Amino acid sequence: MDSTGSRLGLSLGIITLAAPIVALGLFIGSFAVTATSAAAGNPLAGRSFYTNPNSTAQVAATAAAVADPDSAAAATLGKLAEQPSAIWLMPEKYPLNTVQADVTAIADAAEEVGQTPVFVVYGIPDRDCGNFSAGGLSESDYPTWVASIATALTLKASVVILEPDALALATECGNVEQRVAQIQQGVAAFAPTVATVYLDAGHSDWLTPATAADLLNRAGVAQVRGFATNVSNYNDSAAEQAFGEAVSALTGGAHFVVDTSRNGRGGNGEWCNPAGQALGGTPEATTDGASRDANLWVKEPGESDGTCNGGPAAGEWWNERALELAAAAGW
């Protein structure tokens, strides 16, 4: 991916997966909800998003509190850990044989405290086209894995962001038709659920609105709530708002969410641990009735993008950078 891409920066393990192959029907039409009808009211309004007690931020905050409970670092990391961020579902951590039970447990825990979990589905075959976040499932296992996640969320209120970078990278990777079909599989799987689903659309420094809209339309954005922008990136909210509105106008009024976890200073064109950045707006639904449904922390802001600009391996927690982001935001 070139410098305009997200480069999600996730640490990946290796797990051998084995499970029966279950055919997943691609007939979306019987479950279709048009973008226009889905736009009747913001489904995220009034929701409290789930704060994962096992997040990397919480682990860091606990360690800091044990080392020096009265330190400024412990207080800042504790505040970071209180912010709801997305839970990334990757087959390396949530394999095919346990993913349904794992997601059910998370959704149940969120329901018990009256919160709505945000999930990122990130297991598409040839994920990241073999770059830093390489991995993913086989062509045969992927539909089954997604269907298992959907089954767990059939009657559970949740937000699902489907396959960051998959569509945005497709032109560069030369697999547009394959990616469109794979995202359609996800759309079909979640259609009978109550999950609020957003397809990933890249961001304002990557695709033109016309290109993003074309990919989203082909992948079935009209059958879900809308799309997500700026996942794991740093573009400011004004740029993403303009991009989102332009894409929305070309997708039948599809709504969108923005990853604001690290966009407080708007980035500098770098995707991998750029210096001088800040936390962005905290996660919350919007209330202005416009096309933007919410600000979300999709990327945990203290996690490294990779071994660049002094960072640790991709996906590892980086205390120094987390504290810098917080300080720059005035925390």
Automatic annotation (TrEMBL):
GO terms for biological process: cellulose catabolic process. One of its GO terms (molecular function) is hydrolase activity, hydrolyzing O-glycosyl compounds. It is an enzyme of class 3 (hydrolase). Gene3D superfamilies: 1, 4-beta cellobiohydrolase. Substrate binds at residues 88, 203, 206, 233, 271, 299, 303. Keywords: Carbohydrate metabolism, Cellulose degradation, Disulfide bond, Glycosidase, Hydrolase, Polysaccharide degradation, Signal. The keyword Disulfide bond applies. The active site is at 128, 165 (proton donor), 305 (proton acceptor). Its EC number is 3.2.1.-. Belongs to the glycosyl hydrolase family 6. This is Glucanase.
